[in-house]
Amino acid sequence: MDHPLYEKIHNSQRFKDMVAKRERFAWQLSVVMLVIYFTFILLIAFSPQTLGTPIAKGSVITWGIPVGLFVILSAFFLTGIYVRKSNREFDAENQAIIEEAKRHDA
């Protein structure tokens, strides 16, 4: 970070606000994923018969399979939410901050 433009961006209140907002959003999604994951783990630990119950009478597929798939797919879904918001909001804000710093630097 030897370049004065980097320092100007890094010291910008707008940049700090954007970083804080992005971190808050990332933590919110992380908490959602952790709740999903630990609920699954606790279900395995304390009620394994729930996940071992067949979906339908005579079925070989148990509730553990769709619940496990839900855990995996929720990770992809939450990642997609983050990427979409990042591409639409955070990247645009970041570019605006860079342009603003360049204008004030010139």
Would you kindly provide a written description of the structure presented here, covering whatever features stand out?
The protein is built from four helices and no strands. Helix 1 packs across helix 4 and helix 2 (13-46) runs antiparallel to helix 4. The protein has helices spanning 4-11, 13-46, 48-51, 64-105. It has 106 residues and is mainly α. The radius of gyration is 22 Å and the shape is rod-shaped. 83% of the residues lie in helices and 0% in strands.
From the spread of the alpha carbons, the general shape counts as rod-shaped
Strand content: under 5%
Q: How would you describe the oligomerization state of the chains in this entry? A: single chain
Distance between the termini: 18 Å
Q: Mean of residue pLDDT?
A: 92
- Sheet with the most strands? none
Q: Number of DSSP strands? A: 0
Radius of gyration: 22 Å
Pick out its properties.
106 residues, mainly alpha, 4 helices
Describe the structure concisely for a colleague.
This protein is mainly α. The protein has four helices and no strands. Helix 2 packs antiparallel against helix 4.
